[in-house]
Specification:
With 510 residues, the protein is an alpha+beta fold. It is 32% helix and 24% strand. It has helices at 16-27, 55-63, 67-81, 90-99, 130-144, 188-193, 257-268, 315-334, 344-366, 372-384, 388-398, 444-450, 493-501, and strands spanning 3-12, 32-35, 51-53, 103-107, 110-113, 126-128, 147-149, 154-160, 163-168, 173-181, 199-200, 205-213, 223-225, 228-232, 238-243, 274-284, 287-289, 294-295, 298-300, 306-307, 422-423, 435-439, 457-463, 472-475, 481-485. Strands 1, 2, 7, 8, 9, 10, 18 and 19 form an 8-stranded mixed β-sheet that branches. Strand 14 (228-232) and strand 15 form a beta hairpin. It is globular, with a radius of gyration of 24 Å. The chain starts with a strand and ends in a 9-residue tail after the last helix. Residues 41-46 have low confidence and may be disordered.
Length: 510
């Protein structure tokens, strides 16, 4: 069969992680090709439940100028839900708190609510349905010129001299310098690359469905009983159960109305009949992480690199942050502007973040188990969350605000997301996906040092009112601080530029 022309990077999987990664690669000047197994440019099946974009993901998408689009689709969602601000229904109350920007997620169902909205709070969230997010990211990718080939399932991955080949189900293949598997928890890319996926087996079965009951009044509220949990979504008609039964026997079998009704009855103790099942999914707490996120020219992102229970809603955000971390690095490498060793920082930075999310999702599942001892533990944690510092700790963990890629750095800002800045230049700092060297002193030396990387890093005048002692800050394209100085001493700046953006050049890149 035929071989498609060489491209820079093959992205296997057109879900949110793959689409964001492809867009980031395009911003970095690379030529990505997305291969999506499903027919159609998007996987257009109706997504169940709502997805929360946590604080760090919202900050990241704000860098690219996407928050206006997010706000628009969220407003449409809230209008669809048509909540009553005076209603005592807990699901409607949560929508109201989200609309007020006071809801910051939850930990094992224990809500993380701020007493008052703070417009400067980095943990501000957005809520939307996953298929809506995919459409938004697909539209943005198309605007940037990303190519997406639908109906192209990848069945094999073969590293070869100078690159890697993706073999498709029809026998054709595509060759590229690098390939990134964003193809989910059962990733073909990960398996064919021989990357181990250690972890723990499932202990629970979760089911979520859009279901119409013969007696709509039979189930009117959530419950946490001796057989498991039942919850009602903010989306009308959605109902969910969790049973601690050792995990589903066969996740590939479609969920039937009879199976969903039986689960509802077991958990609630109320016999129900489902007259219509529009959509349903089954999931577990199978928890695993790839031993490395890179093997040669093959890399992993999103669920291909880590899977865990969806309790807490962190999986989508974890994958999107993988894409933000990897895209600019891989773009610099494939363009020959930075050494391949830059890619080693991807696993070094993202693997510990994934480990921490796996740990806290395991803890959240444990806190949902039936039993008097767990119920007592939940009450103790509920009391703990009334302590402001403790609540803030959980909010920052749930929203990725506590991520520190360089905990032992000489300057406390290095490895952390950039603080709030006031620009003296009008253009958005990182909308174009390049690096930025912030000159907070109006210093000619800063601009002279940055000139050697003018094709990858802009020098921008700025001020940081919260930290007036800052002299200069080097921002990576993902918004994290690569280098900072609190006085006019610029020691280490040339080295930091070279480490993160490759050697200085006199001419412009392609």
């Amino acid at each position: 069969m035929g071989v498609f022309a060489l491209t820079d990077v093959i992205v296997v999987g057109g879900g949110p992680t793959g689409l964001l990664l492809a867009a980031e690669l395009r911003l970095a000047g690379a030529d990505p090709l997305v291969l999506e197994a499903a027919d159609g440019a998007l996987r257009r099946t109706r997504s169940l439940g709502l997805r929360g974009l946590n604080g760090r993901t919202v900050q990241s998408l704000r860098l690219r100028g996407l928050t206006d689009r997010l706000a628009e689709v969220q407003a449409e969602l809230f209008e669809m839900l048509a909540f009553d601000a005076k209603s005592e229904d807990p699901t409607r109350e949560m929508v109201r708190l989200l609309a007020e920007n006071r809801a910051k997620g939850h930990f094992s169902g224990l809500p993380l609510i701020e007493d008052a909205a703070d417009p400067e709070d980095p943990s501000a969230q957005f809520v939307l349905q996953q298929h809506v997010l995919e459409r938004l990211l697909a539209d943005w990718s198309a605007e940037l010129g990303v190519r997406i080939r639908a109906g192209c399932p990848v069945v094999d991955v073969r590293p070869e001299d100078g690159g890697v080949r993706a073999v498709l189900a029809d026998g054709s293949s595509v060759r590229a310098a690098y390939l990134v598997g964003c193809d989910g928890g059962r990733s073909t890319v990960r398996k064919r690359a021989g990357i181990a996926f250690p972890g723990t087996e499932a202990t629970m079965t979760g089911r979520t469905a859009v279901a119409q009951l013969a007696d709509p009044g039979a189930i009117t509220s959530a419950l946490h009983g001796p057989r498991g949990l039942l919850s009602l979504s903010m989306v009308p008609g959605e109902i969910a159960t969790i049973e601690f039964d050792g995990g589903p026997a066969d996740r590939d079998e479609p969920v039937t109305a009879e199976e969903m009704a039986a689960s509802i009855s077991r958990v609630s103790g109320t016999e129900v009949t489902i007259t219509e099942l529009t959509a349903a999914i089954r999931y577990s707490d199978n928890t695993r992480q790839a031993e490395t996120y890179r093997r040669g020219p093959v890399l992993l992102a999103g669920d291909a690199a880590h899977v865990h229970s969806p309790i807490g809603g962190q999986g989508l955000n974890l994958g999107l942050q993988d894409a933000m971390n990897l895209g600019w690095k891989l773009g610099l490498v494939v363009r020959g502007l930075a050494p391949e060793s830059l890619l080693d920082s991807y696993t070094a930075e993202r693997h510990p973040v994934g480990e921490r999310v796996l740990r806290n999702t395991r803890a959240q599942v444990a806190l949902l188990r039936p039993g008097a001892q767990v119920a007592a533990l939940r009450e103790v944690l509920r009391e703990t969350l009334t302590i402001p510092a403790a609540k803030r700790h959980f909010i920052e963990m749930a929203n990725g605000i506590d991520i520190d890629y360089a905990p032992n750095a000489a300057h406390p800002l290095v490895g952390r997301f950039a603080p709030r800045l006031e620009q003296t230049d009008a253009d958005p700092l990182l909308a174009e996906g390049g690096g930025v060297l912030l000159d907070l002193l109006g210093c000619k030396e800063i601009r002279d040092i940055g000139a050697g990387h003018a094709d990858r890093v802009r020098v921008v005048g700025a001020a940081c009112p919260s930290q007036p002692e800052l002299a200069a800050v080097l921002l990576r394209p993902d918004g994290y601080v690569a280098w900072a100085a609190s006085d006019a001493e610029l020691t280490g700046l040339p080295e930091a530029l070279a480490d993160w953006f490759g050697p200085a050049r006199n001419g412009l890149s392609r």
